[in-house]
Amino acid sequence: MASTKRRGVGGVAVVPMAVIRLGVAAIVVLGAGVIGARAQLRMGFYDESCPAAERIVGEYVRQHVRRVPTVAAALLRLHYHDCFVRGCDASILLNSTGAGAGHGDGGSVAEKDAAPNQTLRGFDFIDSVKGLVEAACPGVVSCADVLALAARDAVTAIGGPSWRVPTGRRDGTVSSMQEALAEIPSPAMSFPELAALFASKGLGVRDLVWLSGAHTIGIAHCSSFADRLYAGAGANGNGTDPPPLDAAYAANLRERKCRTAGDGVVEMDPGSYLTFDLGYYRAVLKHRGLLRSDAALITNAAARADIAGVVASPPEVFFQVFGRSMARLGTVQVKTGSEGEIRKNCAVVNSH
């Protein structure tokens, strides 16, 4: 199949009551769209039509991610960006095309070419997994399901949490750069802006807080937080700006990692960016969250309390709340039944 070339690829611990409450509350913070979608997906969707599908995906992911663990962050981010635009329908994987070709709205520039997606990796990886699944069961398993399963399996492969991934998603046939620009959360957003955008996807404030925890295995380009390093960024009095970066940390970054505003990358969880742990949240509480959207988490009292509660708890608590939020994310605005199609090649719509 054609390859899509892209840039870069003994005692019982006591859990605080606040954390227990947030875990229960998170279960009911669901939008109507998410509930409806979940009802149409199901565990073991391919048990009869392609019983080896999930095993094929899992084995390939484990084999490669254990060798190159940075792939986990790439696949998790790819799935995240996909679900925020037209739902989890693999539209992020489509190539740009000639005017109108394969695009119901006449657009020709796809999501993957929008500025927020220029640093995405993992397209070729998903193509490879899809190729193996196609060889076993042609035209049966969607690219959207392959991506959702691969993101989960990759996180598990590096020692992170697992979560339920019901399947039955269909692939979308429209991919729009303009929609990506409008729908993908920006690293410069305030907490109210982020909360509103998440709410539009049927996701609650706690989903915002816990999904941000994916940054424990991520990196950030210096250009994405240059304003916090070089422009004396801080609160401007509107009540929504995050606190500035810890001064000593910012100075260290300017000296070692981000000598200019546009160059370099920085681990979002320094020292353990290949380990799925609580380091990212500890950094945020210390004013070392790189992006404005990271720092924004502690401008909301409830979010700050939730983060502090999880940091003071056993790691399993974070795993549980993260997994729940990922399961919800994976059901956002999915296409099922007769909607969309099952793409043979994840980069292009089928010929009809």
UniProtKB/TrEMBL annotation:
What SUPFAM superfamilies does this protein's entry cite?
Heme-dependent peroxidases
Q: Which GO terms describe its cellular component?
A: extracellular region
Which amino acids does the record list as binding Ca(2+) 2? Answer: T216, D269, D277
The reaction(s) catalysed by this protein are: 2 a phenolic donor + H2O2 = 2 a phenolic radical donor + 2 H2O
- The residues the record assigns to binding substrate are P185
Query: Which CDD domains does the UniProt record give?
Result: secretory_peroxidase
Q: Alphabetically, which GO biological process terms does the record hold?
A: hydrogen peroxide catabolic process; response to oxidative stress
Where's it found, cell-wise?
Answer: Secreted
Coiled-coil spans are none
| Residues given in the record as heme b binding sites | H215
Q: Where does Ca(2+) 1 bind?
A: D82, V85, G87, D89, S91, E111
Q: Which residues form the active site?
A: H81
Q: In the record's cofactor note, how is the cofactor described as bound? A: Binds 1 heme b (iron(II)-protoporphyrin IX) group per subunit.
Question: What InterPro entries does the record tag this protein with?
Answer: Haem_peroxidase (IPR002016), Haem_peroxidase_sf (IPR010255), Peroxidase_pln (IPR000823), Peroxidases_heam-ligand_BS (IPR019793), Secretory_peroxidase (IPR033905)
Q: Where does the protein principally reside?
A: secreted
Q: What is its EC number?
A: 1.11.1.7
Report keywords, A-Z: Calcium, Disulfide bond, Glycoprotein, Heme, Hydrogen peroxide, Iron, Membrane, Metal-binding, Oxidoreductase, Peroxidase, Pyrrolidone carboxylic acid, Secreted, Signal, Transmembrane, Transmembrane helix
Q: Where is the Plant heme peroxidase family profile domain?
A: 40-350
Please list the cofactors this protein needs: heme b; Ca(2+)
Name the Pfam families on file. Answer: peroxidase
- The UniProt transmembrane annotation reads 12-35
List the disulfide bonds in this chain.
C50-C137, C83-C88, C143-C346, C222-C258
> At which residues is there a site annotated Transition state stabilizer?
R77
Q: Of which family is this protein a member? A: Belongs to the peroxidase family. Classical plant (class III) peroxidase subfamily.
So what does this one do? Removal of H(2)O(2), oxidation of toxic reductants, biosynthesis and degradation of lignin, suberization, auxin catabolism, response to environmental stresses such as wounding, pathogen attack and oxidative stress. These functions might be dependent on each isozyme/isoform in each plant tissue.
Identify this protein by name. Peroxidase
What is the scientific name of the source organism? Oryza meyeriana var. granulata
Q: What lineage does the source organism belong to?
A: Eukaryota, Viridiplantae, Streptophyta, Embryophyta, Tracheophyta
